[in-house]
Amino acid sequence: MVGDGASLYTIEGLAAGLLMIATAAIVLQSISVYTPGDTHIDDMLLEQLGADALAVLDLPVEPDGRTQLEVLLHNGDDGSAFHEAFYPLLRMRSFAPDDPVQYAASISFRDGDEGVVVVPYTSAASHTGAAPYTGRDPAIRVSRWVHLQAWHGLPPPIPNRDQMALLEVILWRG
């Protein structure tokens, strides 16, 4: 007759086996393999980063006040003040201090008979020393509508009148 010791060893062996199988299943399910087909994840992160940076600039400085984007555009900024405000927001991450995010911004507005006119606002070459976007690198576009009042200081061809303008920023890693 088999004693109680053998039964305990059998139960202990089965429990240890189940524990090892469960551990292996958890470890294998938690490992994620990054393949070249998953590059859309980087694009989504870059898009969220750019959208968040523009959203921060589009918050009113004081209650019922103007946003920082409106202030920059109304002061006739040539893109340098926009870079001083926007670029640090892109770089404000603790996990990737050397992330080579570059951007180029443009302002689009409707001009009567001519339809939509796009005016370059800033380029990456003027601020980061990099070549402008060529269209070959994967890039994303984030945008924000800004209300321009008749007394804004932007140079022509942007007419001095009340209007809504679309500030578009193309972001890419390069």
From TrEMBL:
Pfam families: DUF7288. The keyword Transmembrane applies. Keywords: Membrane, Transmembrane, Transmembrane helix. InterPro entries: DUF7288 (IPR055712). This is Uncharacterized protein. The chain crosses the membrane at residues 6-28.
